[in-house]
Design a protein that fits this description.
The complex is a heterotrimer.
Chain A: H1 3-23, H2 27-52, H3 58-83, H4 89-93
Helix pairs in contact in A: 1-2, 2-3
Chain B: H1 2-27, H2 31-51, H3 55-82, H4 94-99, H5 113-151, H6 163-173, H7 175-202
Helix pairs in contact in B: 1-2, 2-3
Chain C: H1 2-16, H2 21-34, H3 42-70, E1 73-74, E2 79-80, H4 82-106, H5 112-131, H6 135-156, H7 164-198, H8 204-210, H9 216-232, H10 240-248, H11 251-271, H12 273-281, H13 301-310, H14 313-319, H15 325-348, H16 352-375, H17 381-413, E3 423-425, H18 431-438, H19 440-467, H20 469-480, H21 489-499, H22 505-532, E4 537-539, H23 541-551, H24 555-558, H25 610-634, H26 644-649
Parallel strand pairs in C: 3-4
Antiparallel strand pairs in C: 1-2
Classes of the chains: A mainly alpha, B mainly alpha, C mainly alpha.
Chain lengths: 113, 203, 651
């Protein structure tokens, strides 16, 4: 086990998450992409704690609280989406939620979208 | 020696699995298959946290994740099984039909060719920019952290703190944070109450 | 003895909870209100309002007096100093104004009580975030603040009389906005993991003291943190979720996003300000331009702190060195994009919501420009913090009354288009708005809007000028030919030569960006006020139909049906402002929600209650006072009993 290789693997997971977050349009895909970034951070914490610090408990406490608060927010977002569904499949699951897509109306003119 | 090699191999294998399961889960179109791969992903994360000796605290987070996963299952199944699957008919404005020369269908919907081209162009630009950004970040990460990994001093043996010590540390130092989380759970509970009440009225 | 012990115990508890007296008072209010949460009658709602008002006001004064009595506080999790006190005071002042705004637009909703409780929760959690210094506490309290803002925004945007398709569009944009914040939070989590890899230390102060920040892994973590801050702030080119949501959401939730959410972003930057200062001042890249030829010293805070009060004019240009050309260029570029594109976006549109959203980004751009001025050495650390606080305070003073008027007119009119505010059909019986625009009250509102629109950009500009004493002396010399007492002619001439030297490209660039942004902003604000009161005449249905057909997205328009009834004509992009006073008469049916009352009864003589006029007048008086104060400072006349430099130096 080499810490550099482990950190490169986890950084590649984070990059995959960042790349897919900016590309995908569906709600569930965005949630999954965000999970990848969170997982990469968790792996980082555990790796560095294991290889660099003796008997460190701070990373585990950090992961514990961070997972609770982040998943609480994700839970609320999913629950809100669940409550406000229209019952029509095309509207509910195929809506375009691309996070970083800009249209012309975001820069100039009236908002017709 | 063999044990360490095996452990290292399993770690790299798990991380590769996480990477590939994540990508597959994101790119699939069928929502139920996405969820299947997502759960496999969570399983791999729990396994790797045990392999990296962090599993004891991950149990509590895993419980929380299970609650989140249950909600995702409800959410996806509600869409897949209980929603109406019809294709919506988009009726265009009559004025725009008169303007387009290609429209010979007399009132039926025909997608404007230029709109499709613009839409896909934006998508491809988005993908290209994202890929360029991650290549640049990856390159800078490898070049700049090379020195860091050469200079660090690794521990001689892996030692893990006990669960009791962790809980003691938590209870002494992080009481305000626990209090804040309880407050926000109370606020969420109030929010749940009146959102569910309004949904019932809507239905 | 028992009572003594009890008193001692209470005193012990009170000492232990310092510095959270303000949040404790809010929690006591929440605890009291929880008993009455399900009582929906008007008397209980007024009781909720009064108790919340008292709670927030008490928290405001307790915060200030407790700091004056007990001083600074620091422990493993929290750090409480003058900057934190100012932040908490600003948040509580924002809370007071938001309380009013939420009540004006949501009083007749059934869940008004619950909305108020969620609002008080969000302010309480915000106070904990402001005081936190430990990474874990900072991250968790930030996430919990975002959660509370999400709960508040979603609850405010519930119970609106929307069609199903419009409701799902709004839901999607709310989700889009908050998913970006979740992504940014996960990036912060990743950034902290890199910092943990570099060092086991648990706060920014500890890392700077131990000088571990030069570690490449720590720099990677900090780069990730600042990039997540960029994503948090929805600056160009990532402004799409913010602009789209603010166009469609309920009025008071727009104010919640402007002031609660963006305050979180600004205060998060202020938490990381020492790291930013370290990166600027201790970078290895040196100045390129000759403007820093004489005595190319670094921007150390010690040397400049002495200059803020004494302000010898030669020292300004001796200390300017572009320490990190990449960061400086990036800051100037981002500021330029915000100022230019924010103003351009506001110029082209007639929607007041979009105009206000863009102008908010413009003012944010001014704060980013001040970061650029710091990196080239015109400002020092304390001046920069003062400018960020003063920009936020000016935004609060200006935006609350301005947006209150515009939201109320939007509610009365049914849409937020400026050029349709004055167009009324002969068939419409709504002479109320027409009469209002032609009355004394309407003209009073117009004058207030124009005064505020003129004063606000000037204050923002003068805050930047007055903060640097040397800058001010240059301006006095160049524009007023006033030689400052105590400076020799030679010194002044040398400084002028350096000021006009072609080598000071970044200074030139900064001044040009500042002036262009300022002129553009003033134009946009005055345009809104004037366009609103233009075309105050009765026109036919046909002209207003053409306008609404072009921009509305109703199914009836898609079918090419132009014979829609004027009273049911709504823009699909606009939230309807339902008349909740008559809610009992409205049947509990989705179709009934499509109807709305565009006009109030003819017995009501005015759109605005009397309280609005007092509110607008008081805020405008404060703005005009600040403007007069700034102008007199330029002529070296101080009307305050203390020097403003003394307060700035304490940050």
């Amino acid at each position: 086990m080499n810490i550099q290789y482990l950190s490169i693997f986890s950084f590649s997971i984070a990059l995959a998450g960042i790349c897919t977050v900016s590309i995908v349009k569906r709600f569930l895909s965005i949630i999954i992409s965000i999970q990848l970034v969170i997982i990469s951070a968790i792996v980082n914490f555990y790796c560095y704690s294991l290889f660099l610090y003796n008997l460190s408990g701070w990373d585990k406490i950090f992961v514990f609280f961070a997972v609770i608060v982040l998943y609480m927010l994700l839970f609320l977002a999913v629950f809100y989406n669940y409550l406000k569904q229209t019952g029509i499949y095309e509207i509910d699951s195929l809506s375009n939620l691309n996070l970083f897509m800009c249209t012309k109306s975001d820069w100039w003119g009236e908002d017709k979208d | 020696m063999d044990g360490k090699l095996i452990l290292g191999f399993i770690n790299y294998f798990m991380l590769t699995l996480i990477f590939s399961l994540g990508i597959v889960s994101v790119l699939l179109k069928n929502q139920r298959k996405k969820l299947t791969f997502l759960f496999l992903l969570f399983l791999c994360v729990v396994l790797i946290s045990f392999l990296l000796f962090g599993g004891q605290f991950f149990i509590f987070s895993a419980i929380f994740l299970i609650i989140f996963s249950t909600l995702l299952i409800l959410f996806v199944n509600n869409q897949e099984f209980f929603s109406i699957k019809t294709t919506l008919i988009h009726i265009p404005n009559i004025e725009s039909q008169k303007e387009s020369k290609d429209n010979d269908n007399g009132g039926f919907y025909k997608k404007n060719f230029y709109k499709i081209v613009n839409y896909n162009l934006l998508d491809t630009i988005n993908i290209i920019i994202s890929v360029i950004i991650i290549i640049v970040f990856g390159y800078f990460y490898i070049t700049y952290t090379n020195n860091f990994f050469k200079e660090i001093k690794l521990v001689e043996s892996f030692n893990v703190i006990s669960l009791l010590a962790l809980i003691e540390d938590l209870s002494i130092n992080y009481v305000p944070l626990i209090f804040l989380i309880i407050l926000s759970i109370c606020a969420s509970f109030i929010w749940f109450l009146f959102m569910i009440e309004n949904r019932r009225k809507r239905e | 003895m028992n009572s003594l012990n009890l008193l001692q115990n209470i005193q012990g508890i009170i000492n232990n909870i310092y510095p959270f007296y303000s949040s404790s008072s809010l929690l006591i209010v929440v605890f009291i209100l929880l008993f009455f949460i399900n009582f929906g009658k008007k008397a209980f709602k007024i009781f909720f309002l009064i108790i919340s008002f008292i709670g927030i006001t008490a928290a405001f004064f307790i915060n200030i007096f407790s700091f004056l009595k007990n001083g600074t506080f620091s422990n493993y999790l929290f750090n409480y100093d003058l900057v934190e006190v100012v932040m908490i005071s600003l948040v509580l002042f924002i809370g007071l104004n938001l309380l009013g705004l939420i009540s004006f637009f949501n009083f007749y909703k059934k869940n008004f009580n619950k909305i108020l409780i969620l609002f008080l929760f969000s302010i309480t959690i915000f106070i904990f975030f402001i005081a936190s210094s430990n990474f874990l506490m900072l991250f968790s309290s930030l996430a919990l603040t975002i959660i509370s803002i999400f709960l508040l925004v979603t609850s405010l945007n519930d119970e609106l009389p929307y069609k199903i398709t419009e409701e799902y569009i709004l839901k999607n944009y709310i989700l889009r906005f908050f998913l970006v914040t979740v992504f940014a939070l996960s990036l912060i989590f990743l950034g902290f993991s890199f910092i943990y890899g570099a060092t086991d230390l648990k706060s920014f102060a500890q890392i700077l003291e131990a000088e571990k920040i030069s570690n490449s892994m720590a720099k990677l973590g900090i780069f990730t943190l600042f990039s997540s801050l960029f994503i948090f702030s929805f600056i160009f080119p990532l402004q799409s979720p913010y602009i789209k949501l603010l166009k469609r959401c309920e009025s008071s939730s727009a104010a919640v996003i402007w002031f609660l959410y963006y305050s979180t972003v600004i205060f998060l930057f202020l938490k990381m300000r020492n790291v930013f200062f370290y990166l600027i001042t201790n970078s290895t890249t040196n100045a390129v331009n000759g403007g820093a030829s004489a005595g190319n010293t670094a921007n150390t805070s010690a040397s400049l702190n002495s200059n803020i009060l004494s302000g010898s004019i030669n020292n300004i240009y001796n200390n300017i060195s572009i320490n990190n050309i990449y960061i400086t260029s990036f800051l100037f570029f981002v500021a330029m994009v915000c100022l230019i594109f924010g103003n351009l976006g506001a110029v082209k549109t007639f929607s007041t919501r979009r105009i206000l959203s863009f102008i908010f980004l413009v003012v944010l751009g001014f704060s980013i420009l001040s970061l650029g001025f710091y990196s080239i050495g015109i400002f020092n650390e304390s001046v920069l913090v003062f400018i960020i606080f003063s920009n936020l305070a000016c935004l609060i003073l200006f935006y609350f009354p301005y947006s209150l008027i515009l939201f109320e007119i939007e509610k009365a009119n049914g849409n937020d288009r400026i050029n349709s505010f004055g167009n009324f059909s002969k068939d419409s019986k709504d002479y109320l708005i027409y009469n209002f625009y032609n009355s004394f009250n309407g003209k009073y509102i117009l004058i207030n809007l124009v005064l505020a629109a003129v004063s606000f950009p000037l204050i923002v500009l003068f805050n930047a000028i007055l903060s640097k004493d040397g800058f001010l002396k240059i301006i006095r010399l160049v524009f007023l030919s006033v030689y400052t007492v105590g400076e020799s002619k030679e010194n002044m001439q040398n400084a002028l030569n350096k000021y006009f030297s072609l080598n000071n490209t970044f200074i030139y660039l900064g001044v040009i960006i500042l002036s262009v942004g300022f002129i553009f902003l003033m134009y946009n604000l005055i345009r809104v006020a004037i366009l609103m009161f233009k075309n105050k005449k009765l026109e036919n249905l046909k002209s207003s139909d053409k306008f609404s057909d072009k921009f509305s997205d109703k199914p009836s328009d898609k079918l090419g049906d132009k014979t829609s009834d004027k009273n049911n004509e709504i823009s699909a992009m606009q939230p309807l402002q339902h008349d909740y006073k008559n809610q009992e008469k409205v049947q509990d049916n989705i179709q009934d929600n499509f109807k709305f009352k565009k006009q109030k009864s003819k017995k009501d003589k005015d759109i605005f209650p009397k309280f609005y006029y007092a509110y607008i007048t008081i805020f405008n008086l404060v703005i005009i006072y600040l403007l007069i104060f700034n102008i007199l400072q330029i002529f070296n006349i101080n009307i305050l009993p203390f020097e403003i430099g003394q307060i700035i130096g304490k940050f």
